[in-house]
Amino acid sequence: APRRALVLALLLLATGAMAQETPLYRPSQDAELWISGGIELRLDKDAQKRIKKAKDGRESGKLTGEDLERAEQRAAKAERSFKNRFRMSGELGYRGNENLTSGKLIYTVLGMRYRPHKYARLTMEHRYNFRGPYSSNTHRIDVQADTDKNFGRFTAGYRLVYQHEFVVPIRYRDILRNRFQLAYRTKAFPVDPYLSAESFTAFHYTGNKLIGLRYGIGAEWQLDKDHALDLSLRHDREQNLPGLKYRWIFGIAYEFKWRK
Description:
11-stranded mixed barrel
């Protein structure tokens, strides 16, 4: 009987310990609101005019013979020009909870992008984070390569990002991000829905590991040629971290293309 009582007591203690530890491994839930506005400076105004002139002349039949040949040569040269392939960008963003009463950070981004090939784009960005009075401001460098290809009305895209944040080595400073996206170009409306999935892998002196997954659904609304609005819902799931957190993220992003 004493032995049975001892075993029963140990089982009760183990059950109690397990019951206390379970919440520590249960991810907490959170909701956030991300708002951003961006501007893209494009220096391709003259190049686009030459490309459009050759295309319209060929399709309408207004340009023929030597005139069409010269127009197409100028268009080809304009398409290969540095100004047509180069972009500069800026962004201002805010991140807080879903009702805007608790801001987490405000950030600015300055970037440059170059397209060396039809299916390849290279981007470098610098981001500065203003984190408020109770946290230290930080900044980071992002190096990005992305590509996409059309399949009828569908567009499949892939983006690779390496980011280095200038913080103490004990934190995760170097992260590799892989994102896959599938978009659909609608015919009747200027609204293009998309699905995305992204992974986050940290490189650290304690070992490299997957630290996050992010799934998204959204739509880009092309207001006109130079203005676009992006609305999205993302689900962010931390992986292999203490105090795991899952987030639902509501995103609103505006972009203006400034052509010169």
